[in-house]
Specification:
With 225 residues, the protein is of the alpha/beta class. It has helices at residues 11-15, 20-28, 34-41, 47-55, 62-72, 79-88, 104-110, 144-150, 165-170, 179-187, 197-206; strands at residues 6-9, 92-96, 118-119, 122-124, 127-129, 155-159, 173-176, 192-193. The protein has 11 helices and 8 strands.
Length: 225
Amino acid sequence: MLPVRAVLVDFDGTACTHDVAEHLMDRFGEPGWREWDERWIRREVDTRTAIRGQVAPFAAREDELIAFAVEHCPLDPTFPSFVSWCRDNDVATAIVSDGLGLYIEPILAAAGVTDVPIITNDWAGGAMAFPNGHPVCDWCGTCKMLAVQRAEGPVAFVGEGHSDRYGALYADIVFAKDALVQICRDDGVPFVPYENFDDVRGALEVVETLPGAVAPERCPGWHTA
C-alpha cells in the first residue's frame, strides 16, 4: 500500500508542461499583464483582483481561448500514466489550480485523461468567479490549503510556483520544482525535487516515512477585506 491516499496536482507548469494562463495573456491580453503578477507577489493586490485585471481584455472569447490552449499547451506526457497508476493503487488524484480554469478539462481530455476532479476558478460568460475560495480569507482565488485539508489523507502535493505555497504548507509530502523549491526552503517545508510524474511515482513507491505537514495554525497568506 502506498503511503498517501490522495495526490493534489497543480496544473499550469505542473500537470501541463506550460503555464497556460501566461500563454493566453501573451496572445490575447494587454502587454502590461505581468505587472499584475508582480504586484501580487509583492502582496499589493490579491489573486482575484490580479486575475480579473489580467483577463479583462479577453471578453467573451471562450472558444478561441480554449482552442489556443489545447493546440499550444500539451499535458505533461508522464501525467496520464501517473493518473492510471494512482487509480490502480486506490489513490485519489485531483487537479488544484488557481488559474483561469476554463482550459483544464479540454487539455486533459485531449490527452485522454478523464474523470479527474478539478478544483479551480471559474470562467463564465466572460467573467471570473471563485467558487473554491476560502469562506473567510479572500487572498487566493482557489484555496489550496482547504483543498489539502479536505482531501482524504495522507496527502501528497505536487507543484511548481507561488500559488502552490499554501497547499505545500499543509500537505504530508511535497513534490517541488522551479519557484516552489525556494519557497519551500524559505518556509521550512521538506520537499522532494522532481522533473516529471515518473519521478513522483518512483518516490512514492519507495518512501517509508512521510515528512508530515508544517501546518501553521494560521495560513501566512491570511487576508480579509
